[in-house]
Amino acid sequence: MSATEESGEEALFVLTAVLLTPAQFPSVLGDDYPEACAALGMEPYEPGYGLVLGQDGKGARWTVVTDDVSLVAIAIATWDCGMEYALSLDDRTVVASLPGWPLAVAVAAPGVPAPHDPAPDAQPGGAARPPLAPPDSGQWGPAQRRLGADEIALQWAIWREQVDGDVTFVAPGEKPHGGVRRVLAEARGYLDTPPPLGRIRSAFAAGDARTLRADGPGWSMVARTDDIAFVLLDEEPGEVLPVGRGPELPGLLTALDELAVRPH
Fold first, then answer.
1. Residue that terminates a domain, selected from 102, 126, 150
2. How far apart are CA 220 and CA 216, in angstroms?
3. Does residue 210 share a domain with residue 107?
4. Which residues have CB under 8 Å from 12's CB, separation 6+?
């Protein structure tokens, strides 16, 4: 999916791109859209941004932020279909050029040095912003917890098969899991006090169902509106806790879905 776009004085070899919108943003950056924008030093512009990840002619990693969301969305959709698309940004749409990449990128531009962080004096205006970098996969924290929830959403069927039957509640040992009870209570609180934009997101699923994603301080929840939910907690490294439908979950998921931000 490599392409080249001219930004400023030097060409950028584009490797990939992602959307940064209220309904679809790299959750590694935050629990909601404003938090994800803040991680990049950006204002939470409601129409959103596109993030273009590439290398300059010296091989340095750059993340170019553009407000031309439609162009980036078209490029991503075209690449997802296995077709080529030469993503070329108009300089007038470039909001910022940030050193580094916030996400892990497995490919590199051909014919340039290996990916590396640019020198501080190479940054626009001579600013010495620490380069963006993906989270350490060997650690567990909010970013890794959100990435785990992303994986469950993408591989729902695989994770669902690992649950034997339809559990009524998560109960390690003899007592219900307190962390899960806290998550459900906080998610229920969103119905009375709507959370920041993007903290609840809804996407297509099989049939008439929706894939629901909700996040909060120290927790992430992934659910299907017609099925169960999975919870991940900061205080439970690597654990995925299933929550059965029971008498309350269906109504909670339906209500959260009504509050959720949806892709256009």
1. 126
2. 6
3. no
4. 4, 5, 6, 52, 54, 55, 56, 62, 64
The pLDDT tens digits for 48-83 are 999 999 999 999 999 999 999 999 999 999 999 999
Residue 253 near residue 184 (C-beta atoms within 8 A): no
CA distance 62 to 88: 15
Residues 104 and 165 in one domain: no
pTM here is: 0.88
Domain count, the chain: 2
Q: Answer whether 244's CB lies under 8 Å from 166's CB.
A: yes
Instruction: Count the Cβ atoms, other than its own, within 10 Å of residue 3.
Output: 18
Phi-psi label, residue 41: left if phi above 0, alpha if psi -120 to 50, beta otherwise: left
| 83-104 confidence digits (pLDDT tens) | 988 999 989 999 999 999 999 9
The domain of 44 spans 3-126
Tokens of 97: 């050029």
Domain boundary among 68, 91, 126: 126
Please give the structure tokens belonging to residue 41. 């030093």
Dihedral sign for Cα 39, 119, 144, 18, please: positive
Q: Do residue 253 and residue 175 come from a single domain?
A: yes
